[in-house]
Structure formats: structure tokens, C-alpha cells
Amino acid sequence: MKQGGLQADEQNVDLPAITRRSVLEGAAAAVVMLGLGGAVRAFAGEGTPLRPPGGQDEARLQGSCIRCDRCRTVCPTKAIGVGALADGVVNVRLPQMDFRSGYCDMCDGEFRCVKACPTGALTSFDPFADKIGVAVVDVEECQLYGVSATCNAPCVDACEYKALSIDENGRLVVDESRCNGCGACEFVCPTSAYRTYSGSGKRGINIEAKEASNV
Amino acid sequence: MSEEAKRHGASTPAVVRARKAIRAIVPLAIIVAIVVGVGPGTLCSVGYDAIAYICPLGALESLFGAGAWAPRALIALAIVVAVTLVVGKAFCSWVCPVPPLSDFLSSKKRRQADCAERAEAGKRAGERWEACRGGCASCSACAAPVAAEGAESSAIVPKPKKRGRGIKLDGRHVVLAGALGSSLLCGFPVFCLVCPIGLTFATAIAINRLVGFNEPTIGLLVFPAIIVLELTVLRRWCHRFCPIGALLSLVARFSKATLPKVDRGKCLRNDGTACHQCAAVCPEHLDPCEDLGDRPLSECTRCGRCVQACPKGAVSFLRPMRLAKAEMDASGGVPEERGM
Question: B74 with B187, same domain?
């Protein structure tokens, strides 16, 4: 009957099946991706860029971040920049703090970057316990350390956490326990405010990466 | 003026006009927002505060890369799945910037070759239909119990059966597995580094950083170079490699409600003509009429080219009441699923 005929001639209308070529192409692409990932891991730069608040667990940030750019664009102070190829391939398009453009005012506790992060790469941040980094005075650049020490030290006023002070010799000192690396001091530091061709290009006070264990 | 005349009068159906408008507006709006600095994000994730769309592949890669299950990524993933269940792979032709970019990067010759490939695929669909018409009894691709009595409705137009046409894994799914596997092994979303959608917006951001922050980066050259490489050397990226399309296609096979619908009363195949004009313009190499194309209907991106191409105006996305009623009558009260 008809039903019998149905099974009899399976070849009558041949819908194209999956081809070996297409699978091989896909497999080649998958292998290239795996190789790329491995190479990126093998040649990762050694420096750890400063991450936005809540992104201090570097393994988690790199693992979760899909480079969507939302944290950067919601930052009201423009303190978040984008990682460049020069920082190592794994850092490309990852968020990193750019204290020349702004500093982290923690959005008065709102943390809009953390809120915006869709994948949990940025998690909660406590400004009094967690650290983006820590301020380090560059004695070559800080004008309070120069021969003619003249600076009205806007960094001291800018620090909301009372981490900066000027000692009896008129030198700038950092209280690392109070500093959470918000970058206000680096942002206001007048040294190298304009790009110069002499000197290190660093500011008198810079936020540098700090191990979490130092809290 | 009859309905048919109206269709022929308006050369571009509303669905095609809407698609073209949305596909132009969405990426441009995102780029303008990036430049203005109030960006809601990119196509990798776009939204306001905690309410955001997330690229489904990005969300999965992130789960694999970090080994941590972010609830928001899971919720967003569920929403993408739900939307895909309704509109299938519509993202590919309505939103994704890759097809127009790919078009832009193709030479005239290349574009003509693409058209020829579509026409060839349509022709093959037509041939399959001819073979099918020879007798549904002898044909495995045709609908099961040959509609016996209901002569006038299905005697001529064969109904392909669903079996074997559901999920079809191909090279893209291998790429998808590679994207997830490499994220797991390398500990970060590897595909995001080379995703042409992400790189399109990364290029826009790099240009914006150059102009706004005087920050020249090598990415300005590298990002577009990767896009060009992917869309020209690995041509037909969407068909052969795109893991996002692969992911959507896994879900889209269950999405039938918004597939193009064919009014059998108008369709030329109803008169025995082996017309395959709808199939011959389909960029996905489908056969909207009978699902006898090179690729299964689950790959449909709802682009509306078949609606535009049908000489009888028989293809549409909305099922007219009249058509629904006719099918109801023809199948003896039971709404016919085929013909959707």
C-alpha cells in the first residue's frame, strides 16, 4: 500500500545532509579559537591593570567580561577606559581605570558600573574595605619632594578618605590602610597634567595595583 | 483594487521596509549613543541599569569562562530563548550588522555569485518539489499519510513531513562548541575577541577614543582588519561559521508561529507550476513553500524577501483570516499546521 511505498524509496527526494566539509571547516575554526585562547593566555602581559570597583578578582573579571562596554559608558566621571592591544591581548577592550580622565567617586554608593555589568564580572565593592589599587607617591615627580617644594597639594584636599597628609618635612605621605585607590589624587595632581616630553610621564602620585591580601 | 493588485503596486512589502529601517537604526543609534557618551552599551549587552539584553553566546561563554553562574546572565539567556521561540532567527536579518557589512565588503562579482547561489538553491528546491509531486506515496520527504480523501486541498500540493527536517547540525555548531570549549579551557570568552559584531562596535569605540580622548590605539587597525578577514576570506560567515546563529538555530526550530505563511489558494504550485521564486531569493537557501530547500525552515530570519518575490502575493507573515478559515474547512475542522 501507500505506507509501504513510503519506506521503499527513501532516495526520491534527497534533502542535503550535513557535509563533511562544513564540519571540517567548523572544526578548523574551533581549533583556531582554542589556539588563540591558549596563545593569549601564554603571552599575557605581566602587569595587572587597575579594574573598576568590584573587578578586583582578576580571574573572575577576565572569565566573565564579554567586553560589552557598558561599565565604561555608564561611568559618570569617565574614570573607566578601555584596554588596548598594547596591554596584552587578553586586556583588549576590558575595562580599566583611567585616572587621567576622571576618578572613581563611587557614584555616592550607587556603583553604576557594577549595576550595569550584565555578567557579574564586576561584583559588590566596599569603599572602606576593598581597594581598586593604592596611591604611591612618585618622589621624582611629586613637587613636594623637589628642591623647591612648591605645591598647594590639591591631592590632600581631593582625598575623601583622609589617606593623604603632609609630614613635618613638608613631604606627601600616604596612609595605605585608608586609601582605596579611588584615584582622586592622581586626577587632580598638577604634575604632567599636560603631556610633556621630559620626565616619566607619571604624576606625582599614582594609583598602582595592590594585592588584595594587603587590605 | 484587489488585494493582489495592491501587493504588486507596493513593490516593497511593509515587513521588508520595517526590517531595513530597524537594521539601520539600531546600530546607528548605538554608535551615536557611544559618541554622545550616554551609551546604553553595545549589541553585546544593551540596556539600562540591571535591565539589559545580553548576547546569548556572550552570556554562555562568560558562564563557562568564569565557572560562576551570574543570575542576571541566566535570566537574560532565558529571555533571549523566549524571544527566539517567537521570532526565530530574526536577529540575524533585523538587527545584526554583519550581513550589511558583508555586503559592503563584497565585490560586485561576489554579490552576483551569491545571487546565483540563491537561485541555484531555489532551483534545487523546485526540482525536489517536482520529484515530490510525482507521487507522495513514493517519496520520503513528503508528508505522511497522503491526504487520501481531502482531494481538492492536498491532491496537488504535497505536504512535506517534518521528520528529519528538524535540527540540523553543521559546521557552525562545531564553532559554537569550540567557542564554549575554549572559554572553559582558557578561562575567558575567547570568541568575544574575534566576534565581528563586537568588533564592529569596538571599532566605533576606538574611533571615538581617538577623537574624544586623543588615544590612538593599534586596535583602530586590528579590529577592522579582523572583520574584513572574517567576512571576505571566510566568506559566507553567517552560513558557515557564526556561532551566534548556530545557537539561535538550536532554539529557532521550535519557532513556527512567525514563519512566512503561504496562501495555498494563490500559490502557483497549487496549479501544478513548479514555481520556486520565493526559494530563489532566500538568502538562507530555504523553501518557504514546502520546506524542501537546502536548509531547514528553522534557519528563517524573517527577512521578508520571499514576501517581496512571490509573483502572486501568496507569501505573508500574517495569516489572513480568510486563509485560516479555508485551511480549517479543507482539513475538516482541524487547523492544518502545514502552510504556516
Answer: yes
